[in-house]
Design a protein that fits this description.
single chain, alpha+beta, Uridine Diphospho-n-acetylenolpyruvylglucosamine Reductase, domain 2, seven-stranded antiparallel β-sheet, five-stranded antiparallel β-sheet, globular, binds flavin-adenine dinucleotide, binds 2-acetamido-2-deoxy-beta-D-glucopyranose, oxidoreductase
Length: 516
């Protein structure tokens, strides 16, 4: 597979010089104050003095002078730079309500950062206090109820490995570096969704801290309206301190992996075969054909003017069953192929989504995205031709530009009624996106942005744009409806729930339903 170039995290946000501010509390008790005070400059020392004593042992409060600051403020895309003046790294779930209440009482804006793979530019409007989830890595299997309790800071890699060692699997994203909560709150696509639905669909209970600091349980019988909202629009409503999700006994010892590199002349054959694959089982994907993913990009070992199609397939079962389904792809004629059978935890490394893979650690600057039900093969050819033309015109972009495609098995996702969760895109299990590295200020940035928008327009064609909230770029051309659903009742319901659970709109930095 062609790999993403590596980029070093460049300019990190530095704290502004600390100027002496007014004291946080006046003599008046808080309940006599019409409005809590607003601070202009948040000071580490003040937060340490006032909040520190109330937090559990092992919690840390620090600013930019701390060695840990750089790692806890870097994002996958370097231009995502929320302005973190103070970081509070909590050591226990119970700390979170104290931090949130302290922030709300003092009009301090706060934002959770977990694994830093948030990619929407809406994060850049943030200035204030970070709640770091880094220390909340707890995992507790309950075999009797076939569930696992996961703390708010976990990410896929260790969770998959731990469960597998104990004979279980659970739904996660396909990339092992990504935080599980952030991903679930937006739905969550991964290799088990053909069998078990979205990652959010497997969650039976959330422990949540609301904007006022209250700790509540959210499930099908307790705050059920919020349970609906957390599964697709969850970033807008609270801090998840932990959640309980279904686990399933492992059903196979090995997964089958098959990768192909095809030259551009095979494009029609490939996309027609992909469309067939995703409808082969009475209109849905064979459930065990879990995940196919591919990029169209330059591979210098083949050509420096014509991109190739590099694809891989992950099958949740034996090689012979997988190869029967892959026969149409085998018949196309690849420039190179690779086949392996590995335990489930290792499938990500092969598909380039393991923790050690470059794709997981650093991203490029420019992206655009859409969701599809099936490929329009004519449009795919136009996209290919566009690629050839753009890199002729802007040769520097040839090293980083790519069209990426993710096709998930869709049966269980579509079996769940669309109105039962806030996730609005159940019909569209193909995610496409454009990526290119073009640093701010470089002469390639404007062309890369134009290309991103033009590629998106070709994918959308005559359809309505569909934006997966977890892949949204935050550009103004992505409408709120394209993210949260076109049916008017969806945004109405979400706005009603905002008024009820977050009336002061504290959670407004990640694809906000209500921006201000
Ligand atoms: C390389 C890469 C691979 C990806 N792979 C997949 C994939 O396979 N499947 C998929 O569905 N998506 C995938 N995504 C998208 C991913 O779901 C989102 O980027 C997700 O928000 C990342 O979560 P994070 O914790 O890593 O990032 P962060 O930036 O730390 O978190 C993103 C946002 O989530 C919210 N959040 C995080 N933790 C909490 C919490 N405990 N409580 C409340 N809110 C919280 C906050 O609003 C935060 O701003 C991928 C993204 C990248 C960059
Ligand atoms: C920052 O992260 C890198 C890579 O994970 C790690 O090697 C390094 O030790 C971290 N630095 C600090 C100060 O935690
Ligand atoms: C639902 O949440 C309530 C409140 O936290 C809790 O008492 C109850 O046990 C939860 N039910 C399930 C099935 O998790
Ligand atoms: C397809 O649907 C028909 C009618 O519902 C059913 O009889 C058949 O078993 C299904 N086939 C598969 C492969 O699920
Ligand atoms: C992912 O990383 C592993 C370990 O470094 C490597 O063997 C593998 O080839 C990488 N996968 C891809 C697709 O680049
Ligand atoms: C497919 O793409 C072509 C070329 O962009 C476009 O003309 C056509 O309308 C599209 N078809 C559908 C069904 O969207």
């Amino acid at each position: 597979m062609v790999r993403l170039l590596s980029f070093t995290a460049g300019c990190l946000v530095l704290l502004h010089a600390l100027v002496a501010g007014s004291p946080l509390h006046t003599e008046l008790p808080r309940y006599f104050q019409a409005n809590p005070l607003t601070r202009r400059n948040l000071m580490v020392n003040t937060v340490e003095n006032e909040l520190g004593p109330h937090l559990s042992k092992g919690s840390l409060i620090f600013g930019s002078s701390n060695a840990a600051y750089a790692n806890l403020t870097s994002y996958w895309i370097t231009y995502i730079q929320p302005d973190f003046e103070v970081i509070v790294e909590v050591a226990a779930e119970s700390d979170i309500s104290k931090v949130v209440r302290y922030c709300s009482d003092n009009s301090i804006d706060f934002l959770v950062r977990n694994r830093g793979h948030g990619i929407t530019s809406s994060l850049n409007s943030f200035k204030g206090l970070q709640i770091s989830m880094d220390k909340l890595q707890g995992l507790q299997i309950d075999a009797a109820s076939q569930t696992v309790l996961l703390q708010g800071g976990v990410y896929a890699g260790p969770v998959i490995a731990d469960l597998w060692d104990n004979g279980w699997v659970t739904s996660t994203g396909a990339a092992y570096c990504v935080g599980l909560v952030g991903l679930s709150l937006g739905g969550g696509h991964g290799r088990l969704e053909g069998l078990h639905g979205l990652v959010a669909d497997g969650i039976v209970h959330f422990n949540l801290v609301l904007a006022n600091g209250n700790e509540i349980g959210v499930n099908a019988t307790s705050n059920a309206d919020l349970f609906w909202a957390l599964k697709g629009a969850g970033h807008n409503f609270g801090v998840v301190t932990s959640y309980r999700a279904k686990i399933y006994p492992k059903s196979t010892q090995t997964w089958h992996y098959h990768s192909y590199v095809w030259t551009g002349d095979k494009l029609e054959a490939v996309f027609e075969a992909l469309n067939d694959l995703h409808t082969k089982d009475n209109g849905t994907t064979p459930v065990l054909m879990s995940f196919e993913t591919g990029i169209i990009a330059i591979d210098l070992s083949i050509s420096d003017t014509e991109p190739v199609l590099s694809w891989s397939f992950a099958y949740n079962g034996p090689a012979a069953d997988a190869e029967a389904l892959l026969e149409p792809f085998n018949a196309i004629g690849a420039a190179s192929e690779n086949v392996q059978d590995v335990p489930y935890p290792d499938i990500a490394l092969l598909q380039g989504t393991g923790e050690q893979n470059g794709t997981c650690s650093d991203g490029p600057y420019i992206h655009s995205t859409d969701l599809l039900i099936k490929y329009n093969v004519t449009a795919q050819r136009q996209l290919y031709n566009q690629f050839v033309q753009k890199i002729t015109q802007y040769p520097d972009l040839k090293f980083s530009a790519r069209y990426a495609h993710e096709g998930y098995s869709n049966k269980a996702v579509q079996a769940i009624p669309s109105d039962s969760t806030a996730y609005p895109h159940r019909e569209s299990n193909i995610i496409v996106y454009f990526l290119a590295a073009a640093a701010p200020g470089s002469s390639d940035q404007a062309p890369a942005k134009t290309w991103a928008q033009e590629a998106r327009a070709l994918w959308i064609g005559n359809d309505k744009p569909q934006t997966y909230v977890n892949y949204a770029s935050g550009n103004s051309y992505e409408s709120l409806q394209s993210v949260y659903g076109y049916e008017p009742w969806r945004l109405n319901r979400l706005r009603g729930l905002k008024a009820k659970y977050d009336p002061h709109n504290r959670f407004r930095y990640y694809e906000p339903i209500i921006s201000n």
